[in-house]
From TrEMBL:
SMART domains tied to this protein: UDG, UreE_C
GO cellular component, one term: nucleoplasm
Gene3D superfamilies: Uracil-DNA glycosylase-like domain (3.40.470.10)
InterPro entries linked: MUG/TDG (IPR015637), Uracil-DNA_glycosylase-like (IPR005122), Uracil-DNA_glycosylase-like_sf (IPR036895)
Main subcellular location of this protein, as a coarse class: nucleus
Single GO MF annotation: DNA binding
Domain Uracil-DNA glycosylase-like, residue spans: 25-184
GO biological process: base-excision repair, AP site formation; epigenetic regulation of gene expression
Protein keywords: Activator, Chromatin regulator, DNA damage, DNA repair, Hydrolase, Isopeptide bond, Nucleus, Transcription, Transcription regulation, Ubl conjugation
Reactions this protein catalyses: Hydrolyzes mismatched double-stranded DNA and polynucleotides, releasing free thymine
Top-level taxon in the UniProt lineage: Eukaryota
Protein name: G/T mismatch-specific thymine DNA glycosylase
Amino acid sequence: MGSGRKRKNMFDGMSEEEVCQLKLPDRLRADLDILVVGINPGMFSAYKGHHYAKPGNHFWKCLYLSGLTPRQLSASEDETLPGLGIGLTNIVERTTRSSSDLDKKEIQAGAEILVVKINKLRPKIAVFNGKQIYEVFSGKKKFNLGLQPELVQGTNYTHIWVMPSSSGRCTTPCRAEDKVPYYVALKKFRDYLNGHLSEIDEKELVFAPLKMQKIHKNEYKESLYFKNQLNDGDDKCLDRKKETLTKKPKQK
């Protein structure tokens, strides 16, 4: 009962059933550089009407720290992303409390709709925001993170990129700064496709599962995080060895 009342307060008195009826609109236009794909809207984002709105999600911070956005945007500004060449969508449009509430049929149907959407809009890169999201889309279990060897089905132009989840609940990697190198590499690949880089080493674009290759170290140090612009004091990280919940101290 207490949990239900707490959630009602979170949604200004709306019940979970009412929130799950809300739709989260895509943020799209044709010929995007990057189309970010989630699995389906969570209740908090659907309630707010904006993507990746839940406090603790690293998406907006990682976009900024990698240089994909000129400043750190808030979720309420998600409508401005297409103007920067970045779009937002989900495989399934139905809002649920958890992605585990989705069934295989609607995921398969959503994946087919996504392919049609990609063929119509022609983004240069389809970015799956989470390893599990690409698993349900592709049916694959074993693949590297970062750039994939194949293009989106039916296209000869849309590359596939797999990110670790931007969710703050993702424990591998768990901190925003540990996810930034994937976004830095994505930006570099985007710049290459747009003709701003004459050549690129594919090794810089492929990451072993759940690990970050050392090849990104120098670029990562050039990111805003290493220029003391990141304040990640509210991020909590699970230390499996010590099995304790630790809190990263705030920068001075």
